[in-house]
Amino acid sequence: MNYTKQPLEIFTPVPNGTYEVTVTIEAHSDITFSILSQSRRFMVQDMSLNSGEKKDFTFNVSVCDYHKRDEEFTNVKGVTIYIMCDGDFSAISMVSPVDIPTIFIAGDSTVTDQPTQYPYTPESTYCGWGQMFPQLLNTGIAVENHAQSGSTTEDFKNINFTAFCDKIKPGDFLIVEFGHNDQKIKSLDAYGGYTENLKYYIDFARERGAYPILSSPINRIIFQEDGTLLNLLGDYRNAVKKVCDEMDVPFIDLWSRTTEYFEAVGPIKSWDFFWGDGTDRDYTHTNDIGGNIVARFVADELIKKNVSSISKFLKEDMIQVEIPEKSCDKTVNTKELEHLKTIGLVNVPDSSALVDLDKDITKI
Q: Which of 80, 126, 281, 299 qualifies as a FRET site for 132, CA 20 to 30 Å off?
């Protein structure tokens, strides 16, 4: 759904903590709308009401300070609700504190809360899966996404993590997904610095009485001539699994899930799920459509790995993703394959000397 108008903003000043929020929307015309919180986290997406209908929407919101690389420490002073809608409506919100678990998320640009511009189009808006995940949860648990574009496991540990590590309490969760940027740093090779940092997050969460969960990085959609995706991050996927096996931590295998899905979709249709503006395109960062798909993979993995303390809150009717039949696309992504010759990644599976694979979107 595209939205042309700037969203309605409702701000309620409250201290850091978890809250139950009820938004009451009354339609004065037939409307379709989406409700977002904080830094563009989706709570309700593309819901419709007929003219004259009035309905409550209740969900949980986490309010938490943050500290991003190259920015000052930011105090978050309340609950911010945004309602995207082109029709005629009125809305109010009620905010009440609740004592519930929080899912804290650490990660990079493929996970982070990405901004957007208006008119809004889901195809040309960057989106990390972490900002789509809240809409898949019933009340009783909140999501706090601290992922940042460009982050490595080391950057995040020394900067972003410092803003919320003292907020993690017994019964909370810490989901960690990195890899795309670690791959560019020699000291953060899959079985070296990367692995050691993953273990640091696990140990820290457990010391606080929280539950760590690790995820492999999503795959990039760089297709080879045989229709398979180039394996640039496989070692990082395997390193995450190895750590999870050794330390008895739930393993979310987004590398395998995204590889399976986008190889089935094929090299042409895969672009529907990644950022593009009609002339330029991105093969690392999902758009809102792709971010939604990946968030559902995360939810499905949590159920399959029997993480019952989270999965019991999931809206199971919203998380199924059907793997399509293999595409008959015969197109070869010659442009992308040629581009690989200029790429200077450090930690790649074959150690070959393939400038920067991932577009810098940290300033958008």
A: 281
